[in-house]
Amino acid sequence: MVTNPVLIVALILGINITYVSMFTLRLILVIKGKRTAAALLSTVEVFVYLVGLQLVLNNLSTPIYMAAYCAGFGLGVYLGSRIEEALALGYSVVQVIADTVNTNLPDQLRASGYGVTVWQGEGRSGPRLVMQVLVKRSAEKKLLDSISAAAPKAFVISHEPRHFRGGFWAKLLEK
C-alpha cells in the first residue's frame, strides 16, 4: 500500500486524468456508432475508475486527495477532448460559398481528390457558387487550407453528418 502523500496525490491525479480521458473517448465512440470499441474501452475505464475512487474513499479525511481527484477530472476532460481532436474520427461536410461564380475552385478540389457538388446560389450582392464537399475529419484542415489559398474570400461552414450513403464517397468506401 502506498503511504507517501505526494505519491498518493500524483496517483489520484494520474488515475483520474486517465479515467476521464477514457470516459470522454468512450462517449465519442458511442456517438460515432463504434459500440464494440466503446464496450471494450469501458471495461478498462471502470477498472481505472474503481482504483482511483478507492484511493480517495480510503483517505476521506485528507482534503488534498479530494482536490487531486477533482483536478484530475478537469484535466481528463481537457485531455480526452484533445485526444479526440487528434484522432479526428468520422467525416465533415464542408460547404463553401465563393464570392463569384467564375472560379475554378471546384476543379482544383476535384483534382486534389475531393468529391465536390456545385450549384449556383444568390447572395445579397449577386450570384454565388456554392460547393459541398464530404471529407474525412482527419483531412479537413488540409481541405480548408486549400480553400483559403484558392478563394480567400469564400464563406466556409463545416459540420459533421450523422449518416450518408451513395455518391462519390460510397464508391470509395466499397473498395
From TrEMBL:
Coiled coil: none annotated. The chain crosses the membrane at residues 6-25, 37-57. Its main location: membrane. One of its GO terms (cellular component) is plasma membrane. It comes from the Bacteria. Residues 114-166 form the DUF2179 domain. It is a multi-pass membrane protein. Residues 24-80 form the DUF5698 domain. InterPro entries: DUF2179 (IPR019264), DUF5698 (IPR044035), UPF0316 (IPR022930). Keywords: Cell membrane, Membrane, Transmembrane, Transmembrane helix. It is found in: Cell membrane. Belongs to the UPF0316 family. This is UPF0316 protein D3P09_22100.
